[in-house]
Amino acid sequence: MTAFSQLETPAVLIDVDRIEANLRRAQDYADSHGLKLRPHIKTHKLPRFAKRAMELGAVGITVQKLGEAETMADAGITEIFLPYNIIGPAKLKRLRALADRVNISVTADSAETVDGLSSTFADSAKPLTVLVECDTGMGRCGVQTPETALALAHKISQSPGLLFGGLMTYPAAGQVEANQSWLAAAREKLTVAGLASPIISNGGTPDLWRAHEVTAATEHRPGTYIYMDRFQVGKGVGEWTDCALTVLATVVSRPTENRAIIDAGSKSLTSDTLGLQGFGLIENYPDAVITGLSEEHGTIDLSNCPIKPAIGEQLRIIPNHACVVSNLFDEVTLISGSEIIETVPVAARGRVD
Amino acid sequence: MTAFSQLETPAVLIDVDRIEANLRRAQDYADSHGLKLRPHIKTHKLPRFAKRAMELGAVGITVQKLGEAETMADAGITEIFLPYNIIGPAKLKRLRALADRVNISVTADSAETVDGLSSTFADSAKPLTVLVECDTGMGRCGVQTPETALALAHKISQSPGLLFGGLMTYPAAGQVEANQSWLAAAREKLTVAGLASPIISNGGTPDLWRAHEVTAATEHRPGTYIYMDRFQVGKGVGEWTDCALTVLATVVSRPTENRAIIDAGSKSLTSDTLGLQGFGLIENYPDAVITGLSEEHGTIDLSNCPIKPAIGEQLRIIPNHACVVSNLFDEVTLISGSEIIETVPVAARGRVD
Hints:
The structure is a homodimer.
Chain A: E1 11-15, H1 16-32, E2 36-37, H2 47-55, E3 61-62, H3 66-74, E4 79-82, H4 89-99, E5 103-108, H5 111-121, E6 128-133, H6 146-157, E7 162-168, H7 176-192, E8 199-203, E9 219-221, H8 230-234, E10 245-256, E11 259-262, H9 266-269, E12 281-282, E13 289-293, E14 298-301, E15 314-318, H10 322-326, E16 331-336, E17 339-345
Parallel strand pairs in A: 1-16, 2-9, 3-4, 4-5, 5-6, 6-7, 7-8, 8-9
Antiparallel strand pairs in A: 1-10, 10-11, 10-15, 11-14, 12-15, 13-14, 16-17
């Protein structure tokens, strides 16, 4: 019998005490360095945690999809940053509707995106704030050079219905100096050109505690920091005792001496390895290795475990990547230590568009 | 403008003509070999396709979770096989409630599971049919030898409230001969012991067209065959033109000459590689490689593409693994060729327990 034996598995447990500590730690860090925090809600998708982060000092939230923005706006959050190229008539219409009720800003990395935004907001009384997305090393979206950042900033500032808001990057983990150099060079070009850049938005949990080294940035957008996970602990960003999200699973089979099968597979833990061996850390059985996942089965190698779990035993697993787990569960159970508080719906789960 | 330009992306398109052809092909194959078909609905999670398979001759459906069984029972399906160890009071109670309204059977691979089932059904007027899960090579759940299969079959047949139903395996792909040998040996032991084994249930799409070689089996449980996917085509199980599920995505960025970013990431395509390079095949751009996914971005290498997609262009992607995609979308859009039929909810999506 564990404290959670009344819960059906697989289930997601969220420790609210750890949430509070994680939010405070990051806000205190940001405050001490004069950085603003605009946390990414993709990790938890829960309005209550978004609001709590703002109560503690965050200047707004970051979302990745219009559907997430709509859910958060419905919950009463009014400062929303959507760092994505919003493209196509249906999505532009939704963006315009959102802008009528909350303060929403977006990014663009191409003339095509800017033109779509401008034609949507040209007749709006309230201009849309648009930041230029910069590829400072990640190799994903973003303009490729400070020169093209300046050119696109010019275009935004000259486009009807739009306001140039600054620069945004999601940097490559660990490349703090390169990120800083890129942003500083772009900021310099903007200054010389007489273009004010009120926001320079940096992001990511992997380099959260080095955010102050990116002096060109005015703010940081961490996401995973609220839950932490096996990947972040591996990178030294947090401790195991900071991990607020665990997947509760049950041992459903012990086919051999050294094999256990649990009822959490890729539909609970996801196939994300993030380069790690195994699919999560099992609390109380740190020497066990989750060697494989199919959709509804997790296969565990117990060879190195002096004590081995029995059929029916519940296990708590810290996943490799917490954000993707949140997207798989319709509801999560809030806990405080070993006490269950309540089970709540994941409001912005499955907002694919 | 494509035929689907009015759809917001990412979206899942399901070609019903290909569904019909895939269902018929498998049923015709099974009929011609005197095999029964008990298709797995985990791939689509849609009652309409489960019903259509049964109209074409399937003897019932297979599900992997109680929640899936409940959804299918609600939709009027009455022959349900749940090949899983059902453990713990809450789940056993749900199983008993299901058994009161549909014909449901389950599997067990341990005395612990059998004891739980027996104590739940001991006072039931209708005994629960339980098959022994056999590990014929997969290395997941299942008894390890034909001898232990016989012993557990004995235990089931002597347990109040239970009826021994036969054997079940999810075999390792490609190990057809080993699977056949294992099952034949176990069946022989059961026969010698005077234990009737009405069902010997084999499974999997990878070896679907070799199912008749497993002469010990009475039935087959394919899942992915209804949609097919990049993995199955790679294994030669189907052709590209059999693939019924595609993910519709939009190019949101073209940061460099040879890079495109789409709005489908791991939240749409999943991180499942199944050992393949890249995360899906892009129709019309077969030389493009989806090299990386983050949650809401897919990164595409266009180096080998003579023609390259433009910002705003919609792409159709055949995913590596269709089943896991179904679990990520609240709704899918049924199509016939280039014509949209309707958008329907994925009834059994997210049934984690």
